[in-house]
Backbone:
């Protein structure tokens, strides 16, 4: 198999894209673009795909109405869905590999709950809108640091990270429950809605935020990917092979946590994507080495984009995207699980 | 077949702690449970002297308000908290054993999510309003969710890894939670009625209508006793266990039955309090080691003490009002779990 390897200062950076993986990535990108274009055409005001194309590229006479829907409403929402999904997809893969547990996700490690608790507290005390998001980012970062410090004892270990994460999730979850049961009904519903995650309010600010996050952090993740492969070999072997274990934990956890925190700021905590995108990717490419991390990212993006389409257009009731992700992602994933089992990849 | 391997397995599972120490831990946990039960009966918004408590138990007088409070509220609450905590503790050990994953808990088989969704759906569709009826829907939901998880996690060729089972359970659980959210967001009436139950609480329990867990829980505990040796063998890995003559599929199926009976009943009584099932086994494993013959009873006491403690703290924090056990559980359990995780250091797992 032909590999594209990029060498830098004696360290082989994991850009090991085999031809097969490149083809898969290209196909996923194509699916994503087509889905996004399709998502933009849908809505009460139907716009043809040609009009979408024209509006985006300023072809022909500008139709104000079409431009408004495409550029102000639907494009930012579709982009936010794809970007947030992508961020959760690749960050989920990092978390699962760092703690060496296929069941791990930012939801279990406390980061999502930390964001939710701070956002819920913000709503409870009357801070809405962007202030809620700001609290959420702060909450996720703070929680990530707390979990790491509490798991630290001559270094962090995967099992301790998981147990501390689960403990913090339970403790903070109690705080959210307290707010949901004690706040008046309307605030409680707002908290429930925020903590379910929604893309209904996405605009260009959200797009820019998550886009910049991905632009900076994804290359860092790919650069650090080799350390993940070593971590997966187990602590002893990894250290023997020259892994700086603690530095690697900190760098990887920080990168993935920041990515998740910013994604949550844009959309609220959308569950499930970070857990299942890596498994969906594994079902197709096997192990998530090198460029395969990007497969997880694209799977996350497609999953959230499609979920958001369903949430917007296929249901008579208005439901936050976060609820739909699990409701429709699950059956698909169970299929992947079944297929993976047949091929022996899961 | 199993018998001849028991000693070997015990040596392989290994433990640096002696029998005397483990007996000491076990009795300490038992003592804590008894103490927690005692305080649970004694403490509440209404102050009842200890003598009155004894009087109420041995010489019940229906004309005394204290006696009515004890029999109507405190004793059911304490007994059911004890039973639910113990059941969750044991169910947690079984799920962690069978999945060989520290994230294992009854919740990982979708049991909590199934029970919650069934109750929410019942309130939404059938407009039931009496919490006494929740128990049937909760039990049914837990059972169906677990069966679906188990089926989806084990069908197919070759792919019978414990990870697959756990993943399938998490997915089914995630899906059911999502449906619960959708229902709650659609119907404000349902949300308002069920939000206290969803948090997990012992404050509304009574002996009315809970006779069914008097049947399901003992069967679950009995199954756990039968499973102890097999769980030790499974800890060595599926291949090793199979070569030692363990019937993996049968063990997994029996474990599922035990977990549904125990955790399903507990959830039906106290609402979806998942954390006990996850934390209790980890906490006692750090003290007593990984041999399931010790771990199961220790976690049973640990779970009971933890749930009762959370319930008592909830009653004491904001007197004369109270906080639900599900809210306090994290605050009480997390520090202990984190302390044990740090203390146990690199030796565990």
Residues:
């Amino acid at each position: 198999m032909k590999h594209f390897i990029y060498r830098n200062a004696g360290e082989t950076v994991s850009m090991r894209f085999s031809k097969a993986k490149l083809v898969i990535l290209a196909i996923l990108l194509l699916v994503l673009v087509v889905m996004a274009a399709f998502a933009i055409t849908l809505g009460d005001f139907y716009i043809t795909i040609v009009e979408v194309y024209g509006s985006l590229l300023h072809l022909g006479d500008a139709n104000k109405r079409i431009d408004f829907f495409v550029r102000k409403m639907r494009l930012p929402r579709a982009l936010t869905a794809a970007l947030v999904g992508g961020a959760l997809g690749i960050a989920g893969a990092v978390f699962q590999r760092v703690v060496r547990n296929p069941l791990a996700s930012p939801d279990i490690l406390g980061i999502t709950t930390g964001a939710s608790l701070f956002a819920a507290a913000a709503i409870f005390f009357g801070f809405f809108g962007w202030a809620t998001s700001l609290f959420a980012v702060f909450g996720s970062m703070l929680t990530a640091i707390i979990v790491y410090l509490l798991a630290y004892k001559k270094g962090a270990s995967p099992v301790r990270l998981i147990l501390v994460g689960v403990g913090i999730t339970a403790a903070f979850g109690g705080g959210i429950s307290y707010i949901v049961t004690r706040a008046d009904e309307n605030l409680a519903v707002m908290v429930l809605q925020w903590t379910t995650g929604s893309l209904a309010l996405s605009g260009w600010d959200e797009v820019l935020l998550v886009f910049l996050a991905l632009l900076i952090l994804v290359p860092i993740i790919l650069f650090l990917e080799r350390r993940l492969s070593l971590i997966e070999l187990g602590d002893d072997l990894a250290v023997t092979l020259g892994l700086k274990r603690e530095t690697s934990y900190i760098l990887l956890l920080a990168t993935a946590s920041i990515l998740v925190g910013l994604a949550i700021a844009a959309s609220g905590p959308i569950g499930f994507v970070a857990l299942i995108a890596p498994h969906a990717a594994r079902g197709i490419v096997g192990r998530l080495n090198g460029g395969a991390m990007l497969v997880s990212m694209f799977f996350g993006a497609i999953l959230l984009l499609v979920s958001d389409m369903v949430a917007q257009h296929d249901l008579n009731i208005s439901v936050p995207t976060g609820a739909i992700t699990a409701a429709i992602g699950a059956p698909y994933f169970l299929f992947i699980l079944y297929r993976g089992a047949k091929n022996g990849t899961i | 077949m199993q018998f001849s391997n028991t000693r070997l397995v015990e040596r392989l599972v290994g433990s640096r702690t002696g029998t005397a120490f483990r007996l000491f831990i076990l009795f300490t946990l038992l003592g804590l449970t008894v103490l927690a039960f005692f305080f649970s009966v004694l403490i509440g918004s209404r102050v009842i002297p200890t003598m009155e408590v004894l009087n109420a138990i041995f010489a019940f007088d229906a004309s005394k308000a204290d006696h009515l409070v004890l029999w109507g509220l405190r004793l059911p609450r304490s007994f059911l908290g004890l039973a639910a905590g113990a059941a969750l503790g044991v169910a947690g050990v079984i799920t962690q054993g069978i999945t060989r994953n520290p994230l294992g808990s009854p919740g990982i088989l979708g049991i909590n999510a199934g029970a919650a969704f069934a109750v929410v759906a019942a309130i939404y569709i059938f407009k039931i309003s009496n919490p006494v009826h929740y128990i049937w829907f909760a039990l049914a939901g837990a059972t169906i969710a677990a069966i679906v998880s188990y089926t989806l996690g084990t069908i197919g060729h070759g792919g019978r890894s414990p990870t697959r089972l756990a993943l399938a359970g998490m997915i089914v659980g995630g899906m059911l939670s999502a449906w619960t959210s959708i229902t709650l967001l659609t119907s404000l009436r349902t949300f308002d009625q069920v939000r206290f139950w969803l948090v997990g609480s012992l404050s509304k329990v009574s002996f009315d209508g809970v006779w069914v867990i008097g049947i399901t829980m003992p069967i679950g505990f009995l199954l756990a006793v039968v499973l102890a040796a097999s769980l030790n063998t499974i800890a060595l890995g599926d291949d090793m266990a199979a070569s030692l003559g363990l019937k993996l599929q049968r063990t997994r199926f029996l474990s599922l039955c035990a977990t549904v009976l125990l955790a399903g009943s507990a959830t039906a009584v106290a609402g979806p309090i998942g954390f006990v099932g996850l934390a209790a086994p980890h906490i006692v494993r750090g003290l007593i080691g990984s041999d399931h013959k010790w771990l199961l009873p220790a976690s049973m006491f640990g779970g009971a003490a933890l749930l009762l403690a959370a319930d008592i703290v909830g009653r004491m924090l904001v007197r004369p009002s109270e906080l639900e056990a599900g809210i306090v559980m994290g605050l009480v359990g997390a520090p202990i779990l984190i302390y044990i995780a740090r203390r146990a250091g690199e030796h565990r797992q």
